[in-house]
Amino acid sequence: MAQFEWVHAAWLALAIVLEIVANVFLKFSDGFRRKIFGLLSPGGGAGCL
């Protein structure tokens, strides 16, 4: 049962990290003036799904 809880905690931690990465990329995109960061930001967020 403990392993079952760790798996859920690991998925939650991964989702949090990917959400932070997506937000950082979106901030670096500077209103999509830097297109590569703008395109990477939804990719990081999509990992949370």
From TrEMBL:
<dbReference type="GO" id="GO:0005886">
    <property type="term" value="C:plasma membrane"/>
</dbReference>
<protein>
    <submittedName>
        <fullName>Multidrug resistance protein</fullName>
    </submittedName>
</protein>
<comment type="similarity">
    <text>Belongs to the drug/metabolite transporter (DMT) superfamily. Small multidrug resistance (SMR) (TC 2.A.7.1) family.</text>
</comment>
<dbReference type="Pfam" id="PF00893">
    <property type="entry name" value="Multi_Drug_Res"/>
</dbReference>
<dbReference type="GO" id="GO:0022857">
    <property type="term" value="F:transmembrane transporter activity"/>
</dbReference>
<dbReference type="InterPro" id="IPR045324">
    <property type="entry name" value="Small_multidrug_res"/>
</dbReference>
<feature type="transmembrane region" description="Helical">
    <location>
        <begin position="6"/>
        <end position="26"/>
    </location>
</feature>
<keyword id="KW-0472">Membrane</keyword>
<keyword id="KW-0812">Transmembrane</keyword>
<keyword id="KW-1133">Transmembrane helix</keyword>
